Amino acid sequence: MSASAPATRPALPRKEPFGRAPDGTPVELYTFANARGIEVGVATYGGIIVFLRVPDRDGRVDDVVLGHDDVGGYVRSASYFGALIGRYGNRIGRGRFSLDGVAHQLDTNDGRNHLHGGSRGFDKVVWIAEPFERETERGLVMRYTSADGEQGYPGSLSAEVMYTLTDDDTLLVHYRAKASRPTPVNLTQHTYWNLGGDLADDVLGHELTIHASHITPVDRELIPTGAMMPVADTPFDFRAAWPIGARIDEPTEQLRHAGGYDHNFVLDRTGDGLAPAAHLHDPQTGRELEIRTTEPGLQFYSGNFLNGTIRGKGARVYRHRGGVCLETQHFPDSPNNPHFPTTVLRPGAEYQSRTTFHFSVRRSAS
Questions:
Q1: Which residue of 80, 127, 213, 233 shows the fewest CB atoms closer than 10 Å?
Q2: What is residue 272's three-state secondary structure?
Q3: Cα separation of 346 and 6, whole Å?
Q4: Alpha helices in the chain (DSSP H)
Q5: CA 193, 195, 199, 202: dihedral to nearest 10 degrees?
Q6: Is 190 among the catalytic positions?
């Protein structure tokens, strides 16, 4: 895809009905595109990226994200397909933490642990959406206010997420939030990528690079132990590109705990701006995805819980490891690990986080 400016600009994002949330609230689907063949669909339920259509090296345009055809599929799903995650992405051990000497108990929805904001996290609410169009970009501003005590979190939280698709083939996700009381905040995006597109089965042949020299190892419940583990000489070393499936079944304790990869990678970064996080390449189609972020971590999840029973778009069955999640984030269980980068947001301060997803095509099949 060329970096030159497009000859024409697509229209303002269009809106259409997408069903109703469990409480009867209407859900809408917004579609926006750039002039070079990328098209994004976002639902107000969960801020879900419902589809993302990208050309391959031959110009074939396919949907490269997993999901469902209507809001009912997302309501019934426990896989967080394409959703915004909050207030806290990833796990908090036993759903407990103390903040300023006060103990808090969160909803526990992953055994005895808290996962992705609880049983009604940001993925299960209807966001207010406002479309926008500028000279070289278009997208949505999405807003949701989480009430004091929701899922056990202290204080109200006013969250805003901006999805921006640019004419240089980049999707920017910009998160902002303000709180009425001190509270942990860790927002992320839970899209499952399969760059093979509509006809692909799994992602084991995708080549992945992660710019990280350490991970935060986990126990059997996938809660960080608090340590930092070097990736050198382990199956977690993706500092150079490796096929996802090349080492995924090696008999190591960390891979056994997760049934594959489901780990936070500590990104090698300096400064506060956007920095390289990961690169994903599908040799079959030539599609490439470059991720940059302001966050200190990246959760690499290899779709281990996809078990061949989930029917997605067009009644397609999603196979084991049929998609890969690359979730930019602060570290799991940070409220219980004070040596991890803090996730506490205090009144008067503003939470901000940015992640970019840049799409390109490698013309050569080699």
A1: 233
A2: coil
A3: 43
A4: 71-76, 253-258
A5: -60
A6: yes
Q: Domain 14-359 carries which CATH code?
A: 2.70.98.10
Query: What size, in residues, is the chain?
Result: 366
Q: Which pLDDT belongs to residue 9?
A: 60
pLDDT in tens, 76-126: 999 999 999 999 999 999 999 999 999 999 999 999 999 999 999 999 999
Note the pLDDT tens digit of each residue in 30-82: 999 998 889 999 999 999 999 999 999 999 999 999 999 999 999 999 999 99
The structural domains of the chain, with segments of one domain joined by +, span 14-359
DSSP state of 313: G
Among 150, 288, 295, 327, the one annotated catalytic? 327
Q: For residue 173, give both structure tokens.
A: 């996700």
| Residues 207/283, Cβ–Cβ less than 8 Å | yes
Amino acid at 266: V
d(CA 295, CA 300): 14
pTM: 0.96
Instruction: Enter the tokens of residue 70.
Output: 């209507």
Backbone angles phi, psi at 94, to 5 degrees: 60, 10
How far apart CA 59 and CA 122 sit, in angstroms, is 35
CB 21 within 8 A of CB 71: yes
What the block records as the tokens of 364 is 């050569």
Closest by CA position to 192, among listed 325, 308, 84: 325
Instruction: Write down the catalytic residue from 68, 116, 190, 279.
Output: 190
CB atoms under 10 Å from CB of 147, counted, come to: 11
CA dihedral over 109, 329, 278, 286, signed as positive or negative: positive
